[in-house]
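WARN no homologs supplied; continuing
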Amino acid sequence: MSLGGTSHVALTSFLERHPEIRRVTLYMDHDLAGFVNARKIKTMLHEDKRFRHIRVSVNPPRMGKDYNEKLLLVREQLQTSQHQRRPKEAAVSI
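OK structure emitted
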């Protein structure tokens, strides 16, 4: 689910309606704001008695600033590798 930035309001509301949730993975941006807010959300969940049972992990993208940038980089790499593998062809007209 999208948090709409770095607010935990949507996540808290979702978890209140779904007490069966046992694990949350945060896919925040790979920058200072992403790391700081992931830590805040993780701390908030562990301090709230309703959510202490939830295991929280943080998974920033390994390349790029965010997951959209990562997808664009991966797409570019795939296009480059496919372009390099194309066989050379020639057409002759008589």
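The mean pLDDT is 86.
OK
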